[in-house]
Protein backbone atom coordinates (compact mmCIF):
# COMPACT_ATOMS: atom_id res chain seq x y z
CA UNK A 1 0.00 0.00 0.00
CA UNK A 2 2.82 2.35 0.89
CA UNK A 3 4.46 1.70 -2.47
CA UNK A 4 1.14 2.26 -4.23
CA UNK A 5 0.71 5.61 -2.50
CA UNK A 6 4.26 6.61 -3.42
CA UNK A 7 3.69 5.68 -7.06
CA UNK A 8 0.41 7.59 -7.09
CA UNK A 9 2.09 10.66 -5.61
CA UNK A 10 4.88 10.52 -8.17
CA UNK A 11 2.39 10.19 -11.01
CA UNK A 12 0.35 13.12 -9.66
CA UNK A 13 3.42 15.35 -9.58
CA UNK A 14 4.46 14.19 -13.03
CA UNK A 15 1.05 14.90 -14.53
CA UNK A 16 0.97 18.30 -12.80
CA UNK A 17 4.32 19.20 -14.32
CA UNK A 18 3.12 18.02 -17.70
CA UNK A 19 0.05 20.22 -17.28
CA UNK A 20 2.16 23.28 -16.48
CA UNK A 21 4.45 22.60 -19.40
CA UNK A 22 1.47 22.16 -21.68
CA UNK A 23 -0.09 25.47 -20.54
CA UNK A 24 3.21 27.32 -21.02
CA UNK A 25 3.58 25.78 -24.45
CA UNK A 26 0.04 26.78 -25.43
CA UNK A 27 0.56 30.31 -24.11
CA UNK A 28 3.80 30.70 -26.05
CA UNK A 29 2.22 29.28 -29.17
CA UNK A 30 -0.71 31.70 -28.85
CA UNK A 31 1.62 34.67 -28.50
CA UNK A 32 3.55 33.58 -31.56
CA UNK A 33 0.36 33.20 -33.59
CA UNK A 34 -0.85 36.63 -32.49
CA UNK A 35 2.51 38.15 -33.43
CA UNK A 36 2.33 36.57 -36.87
CA UNK A 37 -1.19 37.96 -37.36
CA UNK A 38 -0.17 41.46 -36.26
CA UNK A 39 2.83 41.51 -38.58
CA UNK A 40 0.65 40.35 -41.47
CA UNK A 41 -1.82 43.15 -40.67
CA UNK A 42 1.00 45.71 -40.77
CA UNK A 43 2.24 44.26 -44.04
CA UNK A 44 -1.24 44.47 -45.58
CA UNK A 45 -1.49 48.10 -44.49
CA UNK A 46 1.84 48.84 -46.18
CA UNK A 47 0.74 47.09 -49.36
CA UNK A 48 -2.38 49.26 -49.50
CA UNK A 49 -0.37 52.42 -48.82
CA UNK A 50 2.11 51.44 -51.52
CA UNK A 51 -0.70 51.11 -54.05
CA UNK A 52 -2.07 54.51 -53.07
CA UNK A 53 1.33 56.08 -53.56
CA UNK A 54 1.86 54.48 -56.94
CA UNK A 55 -1.65 55.46 -58.06
CA UNK A 56 -1.15 58.94 -56.57
CA UNK A 57 -4.42 58.80 -54.64
CA UNK A 58 -3.12 61.00 -51.79
CA UNK A 59 -0.81 63.91 -51.01
CA UNK A 60 2.31 62.16 -52.28
CA UNK A 61 4.93 63.92 -50.16
CA UNK A 62 3.11 63.58 -46.83
CA UNK A 63 1.96 60.02 -47.52
CA UNK A 64 5.40 58.96 -48.70
CA UNK A 65 7.19 60.22 -45.59
CA UNK A 66 4.78 58.31 -43.38
CA UNK A 67 4.98 55.22 -45.59
CA UNK A 68 8.78 55.30 -45.64
CA UNK A 69 8.95 55.31 -41.85
CA UNK A 70 6.31 52.59 -41.50
CA UNK A 71 8.02 50.41 -44.09
CA UNK A 72 11.49 50.79 -42.63
CA UNK A 73 10.18 50.11 -39.13
CA UNK A 74 8.64 46.79 -40.16
CA UNK A 75 11.62 45.94 -42.36
CA UNK A 76 14.07 46.56 -39.51
CA UNK A 77 11.94 44.55 -37.10
CA UNK A 78 11.86 41.45 -39.32
CA UNK A 79 15.56 41.82 -40.19
CA UNK A 80 14.86 42.47 -43.85
CA UNK A 81 17.46 44.18 -46.01
CA UNK A 82 14.74 46.07 -47.88
CA UNK A 83 14.57 49.82 -47.19
CA UNK A 84 12.60 52.68 -48.72
CA UNK A 85 14.43 55.97 -49.21
CA UNK A 86 12.88 57.70 -52.20
CA UNK A 87 9.67 57.95 -54.15
CA UNK A 88 10.13 55.69 -57.15
CA UNK A 89 7.29 53.45 -58.33
CA UNK A 90 9.49 50.59 -59.53
CA UNK A 91 11.52 50.58 -56.33
CA UNK A 92 8.38 50.71 -54.20
CA UNK A 93 6.91 47.68 -55.95
CA UNK A 94 10.11 45.66 -55.66
CA UNK A 95 10.67 46.52 -52.00
CA UNK A 96 7.13 45.67 -50.87
CA UNK A 97 7.24 42.37 -52.78
CA UNK A 98 10.54 41.41 -51.17
CA UNK A 99 9.34 42.48 -47.73
CA UNK A 100 6.31 40.21 -48.12
CA UNK A 101 8.65 37.30 -48.87
CA UNK A 102 10.72 38.07 -45.77
CA UNK A 103 7.60 38.21 -43.60
CA UNK A 104 6.31 34.91 -45.01
CA UNK A 105 9.58 33.21 -44.03
CA UNK A 106 9.13 33.98 -40.33
CA UNK A 107 8.31 31.10 -38.04
CA UNK A 108 6.36 31.64 -34.83
CA UNK A 109 9.35 32.35 -32.63
CA UNK A 110 10.89 34.75 -35.15
CA UNK A 111 7.57 36.54 -35.57
CA UNK A 112 7.26 37.06 -31.81
CA UNK A 113 10.77 38.53 -31.62
CA UNK A 114 10.05 40.73 -34.63
CA UNK A 115 6.79 42.07 -33.21
CA UNK A 116 8.41 42.75 -29.85
CA UNK A 117 11.08 44.74 -31.67
CA UNK A 118 8.45 46.45 -33.84
CA UNK A 119 6.59 47.81 -30.80
CA UNK A 120 9.74 48.77 -28.88
CA UNK A 121 10.15 52.54 -28.26
CA UNK A 122 13.87 52.14 -28.96
CA UNK A 123 13.27 50.71 -32.43
CA UNK A 124 10.48 53.16 -33.21
CA UNK A 125 12.51 56.22 -32.28
CA UNK A 126 15.73 55.03 -33.90
CA UNK A 127 14.08 54.13 -37.21
CA UNK A 128 11.38 56.79 -37.59
CA UNK A 129 12.55 59.89 -35.70
CA UNK A 130 16.21 59.94 -34.72
CA UNK A 131 17.79 61.07 -38.01
CA UNK A 132 15.35 63.94 -38.40
CA UNK A 133 15.83 65.00 -34.77
CA UNK A 134 19.59 65.18 -35.22
CA UNK A 135 19.17 67.19 -38.41
CA UNK A 136 17.10 69.66 -36.39
CA UNK A 137 19.83 69.81 -33.74
CA UNK A 138 22.45 70.64 -36.37
CA UNK A 139 20.18 73.33 -37.82
CA UNK A 140 19.75 75.07 -34.47
CA UNK A 141 22.94 74.56 -32.51
CA UNK A 142 24.44 77.95 -33.38
CA UNK A 143 27.89 76.75 -34.42
CA UNK A 144 29.48 78.36 -37.42
CA UNK A 145 29.39 75.30 -39.69
CA UNK A 146 26.81 76.66 -42.17
CA UNK A 147 24.11 74.26 -40.96
CA UNK A 148 22.54 76.79 -38.62
CA UNK A 149 21.22 79.16 -41.28
CA UNK A 150 20.34 81.81 -38.72
CA UNK A 151 24.01 82.10 -37.77
CA UNK A 152 25.44 81.61 -41.26
CA UNK A 153 23.11 84.26 -42.69
CA UNK A 154 24.44 86.71 -40.12
CA UNK A 155 28.11 86.07 -40.95
CA UNK A 156 27.55 85.82 -44.70
CA UNK A 157 26.04 89.30 -44.78
CA UNK A 158 28.33 91.21 -42.43
CA UNK A 159 29.44 93.45 -45.29
CA UNK A 160 26.46 93.05 -47.61
CA UNK A 161 24.30 95.83 -48.96
CA UNK A 162 20.67 96.08 -47.92
CA UNK A 163 19.73 95.02 -51.43
CA UNK A 164 21.77 91.81 -51.12
CA UNK A 165 20.32 91.11 -47.69
CA UNK A 166 16.75 91.55 -48.96
CA UNK A 167 17.45 89.31 -51.94
CA UNK A 168 18.74 86.44 -49.79
CA UNK A 169 16.06 86.50 -47.09
CA UNK A 170 13.35 84.59 -48.96
CA UNK A 171 15.49 81.62 -50.14
CA UNK A 172 16.99 81.28 -46.66
CA UNK A 173 13.57 81.31 -45.03
CA UNK A 174 12.36 78.71 -47.54
CA UNK A 175 15.39 76.56 -46.82
CA UNK A 176 14.65 76.57 -43.09
CA UNK A 177 10.93 75.99 -43.60
CA UNK A 178 11.40 73.12 -46.04
CA UNK A 179 14.34 71.67 -44.11
CA UNK A 180 14.49 71.49 -40.30
CA UNK A 181 10.99 72.89 -39.72
CA UNK A 182 9.52 70.24 -42.03
CA UNK A 183 11.61 67.48 -40.46
CA UNK A 184 10.44 68.45 -37.00
CA UNK A 185 6.84 68.19 -38.23
CA UNK A 186 7.58 64.66 -39.44
CA UNK A 187 8.93 63.75 -35.99
CA UNK A 188 5.78 65.14 -34.38
CA UNK A 189 3.61 63.07 -36.71
CA UNK A 190 5.57 59.92 -35.93
CA UNK A 191 5.38 60.53 -32.19
CA UNK A 192 1.63 61.00 -32.44
CA UNK A 193 1.39 57.76 -34.40
CA UNK A 194 3.37 55.76 -31.82
CA UNK A 195 2.44 57.52 -28.56
CA UNK A 196 1.26 54.32 -26.89
CA UNK A 197 4.71 52.74 -27.22
CA UNK A 198 6.36 55.38 -25.01
CA UNK A 199 6.16 55.89 -21.27
CA UNK A 200 4.81 59.10 -19.77
CA UNK A 201 8.33 60.22 -18.86
CA UNK A 202 9.63 59.50 -22.36
CA UNK A 203 6.80 61.47 -23.94
CA UNK A 204 7.44 64.45 -21.66
CA UNK A 205 11.16 64.45 -22.44
CA UNK A 206 10.70 64.23 -26.20
CA UNK A 207 7.83 66.70 -26.39
CA UNK A 208 9.67 69.24 -24.23
CA UNK A 209 12.74 68.89 -26.44
CA UNK A 210 10.66 69.46 -29.57
CA UNK A 211 9.11 72.61 -28.09
CA UNK A 212 12.61 73.99 -27.49
CA UNK A 213 13.73 73.25 -31.05
CA UNK A 214 10.46 74.71 -32.34
CA UNK A 215 11.24 77.94 -30.53
CA UNK A 216 14.79 78.02 -31.91
CA UNK A 217 13.63 77.57 -35.50
CA UNK A 218 10.86 80.13 -35.09
CA UNK A 219 13.39 82.61 -33.70
CA UNK A 220 15.68 81.99 -36.68
CA UNK A 221 12.87 82.76 -39.11
CA UNK A 222 11.75 85.89 -37.25
CA UNK A 223 15.31 87.18 -36.96
CA UNK A 224 16.13 86.67 -40.64
CA UNK A 225 12.86 88.29 -41.73
CA UNK A 226 13.58 91.25 -39.44
CA UNK A 227 16.67 92.13 -41.50
CA UNK A 228 14.53 93.32 -44.40
CA UNK A 229 14.58 97.06 -45.08
CA UNK A 230 15.72 97.98 -41.58
CA UNK A 231 17.01 101.43 -40.72
CA UNK A 232 19.77 100.33 -38.35
CA UNK A 233 22.38 97.79 -39.31
CA UNK A 234 21.41 94.58 -37.47
CA UNK A 235 25.02 93.50 -37.32
CA UNK A 236 26.04 96.42 -35.12
CA UNK A 237 23.08 96.25 -32.76
CA UNK A 238 22.65 93.88 -29.84
CA UNK A 239 19.69 91.72 -30.83
CA UNK A 240 20.92 88.39 -29.53
CA UNK A 241 18.10 86.24 -28.17
CA UNK A 242 19.25 84.74 -24.87
CA UNK A 243 15.88 83.06 -24.35
CA UNK A 244 16.39 81.17 -27.60
CA UNK A 245 19.76 79.92 -26.34
CA UNK A 246 18.26 78.82 -23.02
CA UNK A 247 15.41 76.96 -24.70
CA UNK A 248 17.80 75.30 -27.13
CA UNK A 249 20.12 74.16 -24.34
CA UNK A 250 17.13 72.87 -22.41
CA UNK A 251 15.91 70.98 -25.47
CA UNK A 252 19.32 69.39 -25.92
CA UNK A 253 19.33 68.28 -22.29
CA UNK A 254 15.87 66.71 -22.51
CA UNK A 255 16.72 64.94 -25.76
CA UNK A 256 20.04 63.67 -24.40
CA UNK A 257 18.29 62.25 -21.33
CA UNK A 258 15.62 60.68 -23.53
CA UNK A 259 18.13 59.04 -25.87
CA UNK A 260 20.36 57.91 -23.00
CA UNK A 261 17.44 56.19 -21.31
CA UNK A 262 16.55 54.46 -24.58
CA UNK A 263 20.15 53.40 -25.11
CA UNK A 264 20.56 55.16 -28.46
CA UNK A 265 22.49 58.29 -27.46
CA UNK A 266 25.43 59.17 -29.67
CA UNK A 267 28.74 60.14 -27.99
CA UNK A 268 28.62 63.59 -29.58
CA UNK A 269 26.37 65.46 -31.98
From TrEMBL:
The keyword Coiled coil applies. The keyword Coiled coil applies. Keywords: Coiled coil. It comes from the Bacteria. Residues 36-63 form a coiled coil. This is Lipoprotein.
Amino acid sequence: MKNSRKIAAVLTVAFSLMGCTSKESISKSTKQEEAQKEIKIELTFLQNECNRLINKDEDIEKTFQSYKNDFNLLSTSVNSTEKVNRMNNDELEISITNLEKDVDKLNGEEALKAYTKYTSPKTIYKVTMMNNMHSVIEATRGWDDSKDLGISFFYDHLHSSQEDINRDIKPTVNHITNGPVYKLHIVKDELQKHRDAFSKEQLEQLETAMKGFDYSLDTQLKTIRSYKNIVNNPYTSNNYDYEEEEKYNGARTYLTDFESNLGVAKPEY
